[in-house]
Amino acid sequence: MSTEPGAPAGTRETRGTRKSQGTPSTRETQAAPDQTGVQYRYHRELFPALHDWENTERAIVEFTGEQGPDGLLGLDQMGHFGPQGCDAVVGAVVARLGSGRAVDLCELGSGFGGALRYTVDRLAAAGVEVRRSYGVDLVAEHCEVSARISRAQGRTTMTELCASATAVPLPAASLDLVLVTGSMPHFPDPGAVLCEAARLLRPGGLLVLTEEVSLTPDGEEPSQAFRAIHPRGVFFTTSLTDRTDQLARAGFGDVERKDLTDWAVALLADRLKVVRIFRGSVANIYGGASADLIRDTLTAAREEYLAGRLLPALFVAGKP
Fold first, then answer.
1. Which terminal Cβ of the chain has fewer Cβ within 10 Å, N or C?
2. What is the pTM of this model?
C-alpha cells in the first residue's frame, strides 16, 4: 500500500502517457502528487473501519465465530488476491528456499500489516522460521494501525517501519527475503523499489512479488472503466518488458514469472461470490460504501484479466 513521490520512466500514471524506461518524463515526475497523502486518502476511503481496529475486530469475530489471527480470515487485508495471494508467495518461498531454515524478511508496501502477519504465520507452518519481520509503509497511519493489531496479537518479532520503499532504514545485506504482496501498483518508481530490495538482500536472498493490477502487456493500457475504480495517481502500471528490465538492472538473477491469469480469474470470481452472498456481513464489518467499493474493485480487475489488459503474475528473483 505504500508508494513513493514521483513517477519515473517505465511507469504509466496520471495522464496515461506511455513512457519508455530510458526516457524520463520530467513534466510527469514533477506533476506527481505527494504520495503519502494520496495513498492515505484512498485507503482511508476504501477501509475506514480498519482505522477503528478494535471495533472492527469485534465485528469480524462475531462474523467468523473464532478468536485469534486465523479467525480474521484475512479480513484485516483485502488486496485483490487476499490471503490466497499470500499462500502463493509462501509456496514460492518454500519451493525456492526449502523448509527447515530461519529467515529475516520485510514486506514493502505493507499497509495495515494483514498480509505480512498472515504470510509470517504460513511460513512458520511450512517450516520456515521468521526471526524478524519488518513491514515498510509510507503512510504513518497505516503503520500505527498495523502496530496496534500486532500488539493485540502478542507479536514481538514484527516491526513497522514508516519509510519509503526506496529508502528502507535497514542495513544492506540484512535480509533473506523481500516480499511485495500486491503493492506494486502503488509504487510510482518500481525500478527504484526493486533496486532497494536488492540492496536489502543478502547474497542468495530472494525477492517474491505478486502483480495484481500493476503489469500490462507491452503497448496496452487498462480501460477507462478500470481507471474509474483504480484512479491514476494512486495506481501505476508497468509493461512486462519494462518490469523485466527493471529486475535485471537491479541485479537480480534466476528470475521466474508465473502467469496467474486463469488462477486470478477464478479466484476473483470466488471472492465476488463471497462478497455478494455475505454482503450484509461485509457491510457490517467495513460499512456499506466500502463493501460496494470492494465488490466494484474486484469486478473491474477481473474484467481486465479476461480482456488481457492486465497480466496477473508472480515473480521470484534471486540475489546473486
1. C
2. 0.84
